Amino acid sequence: MALDELNQDTLTYFDLNNELNIPKDGMIQIGKDKEALAAFLRENVQPNTLDFDNLQARFDYLKAEGYVDAQMVDQYRFAFIEKLYQFLEDADFHFKSFMAAYKFYAQYALKTNDKRFYVENYIDRVAMNALFFAHGDEQLALDLADEMVHQRYQPATPSFLNAGRARRGELVSCFVLQATDDMNSIGRTINSALQLSKKGGGVGINLSNLREAGAAIKGVANAASGVVPVMKLLEDSFTYSNQMGQRQGAGVVYLSVFHPDIMQFLATKKENADEKIRVKTLSLGLTVPDKFYELVQQDATMYLFSPYDVEREYGQPFNYVDITAEYDRMMANPAIHKTMLRARDLENEISKLQQESGYPYVINIDTVNRANPVAGKVISSNLCSEILQVQTPSKINDEQTYDQMGHDISCNLGSTNIVNMMETPNFEKSVETMLRALSYVSDSSNLNVVPTVQAGNQALHAVGLGAMGLAAFFAKNQMHYGDTEALDFTNIYFMMLNYYTLKASNKLARERKTTFTNFEDSAYADGSYFQPYLDENIQPQTSKVQQIFAKHHVPDAHDWAELKQSIQKDGLYNAYRLAIAPTGSISYVNDSTASLHPIINKVEERQEKTIGKIYYPAPYLQNDTLAYYDSAYDMDMRKVIDVYATAQKHIDQGMALTLFMRSTLPEGLYEWKQGRTNKMTTRDLNILRMYAYHKNIKSVYYVRTYTDDDGELSVNECEACSI
What we know:
alpha/beta, Anaerobic Ribonucleotide-triphosphate Reductase Large Chain, nine-stranded mixed β-sheet, three-stranded mixed β-sheet, 28 helices, 20 strands, 41% helix, ribonucleoside-diphosphate reductase activity, thioredoxin disulfide as acceptor, nucleotide-binding, EC 1.17.4.1, oxidoreductase
C-alpha cells in the first residue's frame, strides 16, 4: 500500500487536526494541532520509515539503490558526514505543527520507488542539501546545516527537493525569455519554452517585439497574425512539456500596454472568450511605462505603436525603446503606424480582468529601470513577477543558430525565515552562507539547451534571496501589520539583508578574482548606488525596533562608506542578489507565514487532493498574539503596499506583491467608497494600482478576490518558481 493510500479509518491525526476548526468555549483548540502532529508521526511516519543499523548502512543502501548522488557523497570523508549528522541531531529539530510535518513528508521527503516507505526525515533532507551546496567544503556544509536545521534559510522548492538526489530535476527556479519580430526567433522561443519547461522552472516570455495582427509583412498588407496565435502555441507547448507528468508546465507572456494587440491580448483570459483565442493555463503580464499612468491621469487618448515600424525607425527592438521618453516623437512620426485608444478604457479593462481572473500581472517598467543598478535594460519578468534583470536580444538565422547571442535569464531562489533569522547569533555569517549556497546553484547549472539562458547565467551569476514570515514576526512581537513599528522593522531588516549580501558578493569576487560581466559600467562601480545610504544614516527609529535589533550590528553610514570603497576596488560576483518570491508549501514546513503578506485566516483551511481539508493555525497564535493577526481580506491594501514599498527600497530586483480584495468590501475600509456601493469595482483596483505606482512598487503580481459565498476567485498557486 502506497503512503497516500493508507487506511484513513484507522488514523486519528486528520480528525484531531480538523478539531482546530471547531471552537470550544469560544476558543480555538490550538492544542489539537500538537495532538495531530504527534499522532501523524506515530501513526504514519514511524511505521513507514526505513530503518538502518547505522549511518554507514544507510548511505550504502542509498548509493546501491541509486537514491543519492554517490559522487556528491564521495567528496566527503565519511567521518565528516558522521560529524555533520551528530551536529544535526544535537540541534534537536522538531516540527511545530501538523501541517509542517504533513507537507514535508507528502512533498519533500525521499520515498522508495514503490512509494511504500519514507527513505529520509527532515534531518536527512537538510544533510543532503548541506552536502550538495557545499560541494566538498566541510566548513560550509556545517554552516549550511546550521542555517537550515534552525530554519533561518530555506532553499527554493526545486533546490530543496532535488539536492543530493541521484535522479533529480533542475535546481533553478525560473527563466525569462524574449522573442524578436521574425519567424526564426518565434520558433526558437517555442523550442526554448519546451526545453525549460521540461527542466522544471516557470518561464516568462516577452512578446512585445512581435508585429501586431494585420500588420504588413514584406509589403503584403494584413499578413501578420499578431501575438495571440503565438500565445496559443506557447500554451500548448507548456501543456505538452509537463515534467514527465509530475507537474504542469507553467509560463507567463508579457506585453507592453502600448502594443496594438493589447486588447486582444487581455481578451484571451476572459471567461466568455472564444475558444479559438482563449488561453486557460498561460498567465498574462503587462509592462507599463510611466507614460501610461500620465495618460490615465489626464484622461487622454493613448497611441499604440507598431513594433515593426518602431524597430525600423530606432534600430532596436520595440522592448528596448524608452516609450515614455520617445512617446511624443513616435506619435508625431508618420513612418510609425499607430492606433488610438482611450487610456482609461484600457485601465478599466485591466481592472475588469483582474476582478475576473486575477490577471494580468503589472510590471512598472520605468520604475524598475530607474532603480536597476546594472548596465542595460530590464524588459520583462518571470512567472511570479519578482525577477527583474537586464536582457539583450539575439539575432537568429535560418538555420536556427545565433548570428548574435543575446542574454536571457535564469534565477536561483531561496528565502530567509525572518522570525528565526532574527535569532541568529551572527547575521553577517548567516547571509554569507546563504549567498554561497545560491551562487553554487548558478555556478553548477547546465542550461546549454537554451544558449541565451546559459550565457546570461554565466555572465551575471544572478540569485534571488528573499524572505518569509514577516506577518508572523509582527504578531509575535505585537506589532500591527503596516503600523509605524512594522515599517521601521521592515526598513532595517531589508537594509541589513542588502548590506550583508553586498558584502558577501564582494568577498566572493575578491576570492575568485572575477566580477559579473560589465560590473565596471554599473551603479556599484561608479558609487552612485550607495549615495542614499551615505546621505541618510538608516537606523531603527522606534524604541521597540531598537530593542529588537540590539543584539545585531546595524550597518551605519560609515559601514556603507567602507563597503562602497571595497566594492569599487574588488567588484561584486553577483549582478543581482535579492528578490521576494511567493512562498508556497515550503512556508508551512517552516511554520511561517507566506512571504511578506498578511495572513488569510487565523486558522487557514487547505484542500489537500483526496485527503480532504487540513487546518493550519497561524504561527505563534495564542491569546497575546491573536489581536495582531488581521486577515489580508479585511485590511486596507495600502498597508500591504506600504510594507512592500519599504522593503523595495533595499531590494535590487522585485517582489511578488499580491492584492487581497473582497467582492463586498468591509465598511469604512477605503474613504473613496463613502456614499458609493460597497461592492468592489474597477475603480478600487485602479486607485490601488496607482497608489502602488506612486510608492515606487515595481510589480503587482496578482489579485485574489474573496467572494460573498466564502470562496476565492483567481487564486494562483505558483508552484513552478515559488519558494
